[in-house]
Amino acid sequence: MKHYHYIFAGAGLSSLMTVYEMMISEKFANKTILLIDIDAKKTNDRTWCFWEKEKGQFDAIVSKKWDNAIFANQKFSRDLDFNPYQYKMIRGFDFYNLVFDLIKKQNNITFVNEKIIRFNDNENQVVVISENQNYTCDTLFNSIYNPEIVKSQTKYPLLSQHFIGWFVKTKEAVFNPEQATFMDFSIEQKGNTRFMYVLPTSTTEALLEPTLFSHDLLKKEEYEAEILLYLKKLSVSDFEITEKEQGNIPMTCYPFWKHNTKNTINIGSAGGWTKASTGFTFKHTTKKAKKLVAFLQKDTDFRKFQKKDKFWFYDLLFLDVLDKNNELGSTVFSALFKNGNPNLVLKFLDHETSYWEDLQVMLKCPKLPFIKALIGRIFRF
Hints:
Layout: E1 2-9, H1 13-25, E2 33-36, E3 47-53, E4 62-66, E5 68-72, E6 77-81, E7 85-91, H2 92-103, E8 109-112, E9 116-121, E10 126-130, E11 134-142, H3 147-151, E12 158-170, E13 179-184, E14 193-200, E15 205-214, H4 220-233, E16 239-252, E17 264-266, H5 282-296, H6 310-324, H7 329-338, H8 342-349, H9 355-362, H10 367-378
């Protein structure tokens, strides 16, 4: 069995972002690194969006930026001025190419396209068993999400952010490429939290995604029927689908870090790196990867890496609300964006607000559902 200093089980966003930070730090050139994934990362399988101020680390691969967006429900619509933020979109394939082009220049990093069967951790090393061969390492980064870990308990709710997206090209100019649709709750809710997400890249091209925060997935035809209804509302009848994407992101505050050991750390969805209350992934993963790489340079015991903070608790209360009353998502987000400061909400979702700013955001929310959730949560701890 070949031995490595570090093995990454899975080569999704969290693994690639961590390896990228390791490479640009130039502190790990003498460490052997192996990435293992069943997917060769040769397709554009997803789209990431995030907001940030001014120039960012990944601006070279940002495919589109928006300075403002629309928030809407069945009763109102509001233009959101994101200044000083910009809302940015990165295509998965562009990010994969960026990281793998850099990996090719390193002599110490290897990628293998294999399926991982399991791994065994002991006090001395970790053995990773793939369908073709076995590997050993000092340190394992596991990004393979196991939903049964969360489903087997009831203390922390589990919802999903799930969607199917169509990249469409219309015959007529119907989109405003300078304004995204952040959340449009005017679509029929059907007892869930449902909204349409629209990212226009030109007057005739856009990504449309009906998105749900709920317990159960829909049939493929239901997502696509919602897109057709939305296009009809925009008076679009003549269009072609240029690409499709789909996703299912776990939304939970389950403390995955409790499964970390001295030699193994769970990252990505497997480590709770996704923003539990919204499903936003890219920015939170970037921050976590930077912290992890800094941690690696001073400590080797992953049981010390992650701790709960106030934002973890805020997310937990929101998930408790949606777990009991899944239809309240529109009410909560509408309250935040109708009269609130959208920039403060974005800052809050980025975990960068003070307690005073937290209070300003939370006072916009409907009080009774969160009071009930807080009381219920006290008895579940």
